[in-house]
Amino acid sequence: MPEEEEYFGKNGEPRKFDPSFKGPTHNRGCTDIVCCILFSIAILGYVAVGILAWSQGDPRKVIYPTDSRGQFCGQAGTKLENKRDLFYFNIMKCASPMVLLEFQCPTTQMCVEKCPEKFMTLVKAYTNRKGL
């Protein structure tokens, strides 16, 4: 019994049983109706955008990379069929916060068969490309 007294002394007195106690659910009501309506509107908006993207969009833009001219890399039946990789000439320009506003990296991009293993300039790349 002394252990019980010591325990209650540190943590306070235990509550006595009250048969009329209704608990935390007494006097409750709906308070989040506005949030529920706004959440439902947001979900419907996402569904509408998804339907619009599905019906009007071009899934190739997600699957295949595109160069600076808007041509798809690695697309069958085009002159870029064998060039599946996308090469960025200055990848550091893609680290700019402006990329988030424009949704496009501001550096020149080019479809290549294999990424170069050494430094290359834009002029040198286009002259090598014309020689192919």
TrEMBL record:
Belongs to the CTL (choline transporter-like) family. It is a multi-pass membrane protein. InterPro entries: Choline_transptr-like. It is found in: Cell membrane; Mitochondrion outer membrane. Signal peptide: none annotated. GO terms for molecular function: antiporter activity. It catalyses: choline(out) + n H(+)(in) = choline(in) + n H(+)(out); ethanolamine(out) + n H(+)(in) = ethanolamine(in) + n H(+)(out). This is Choline transporter-like protein 2. Residues 1-20 are annotated as: Disordered.
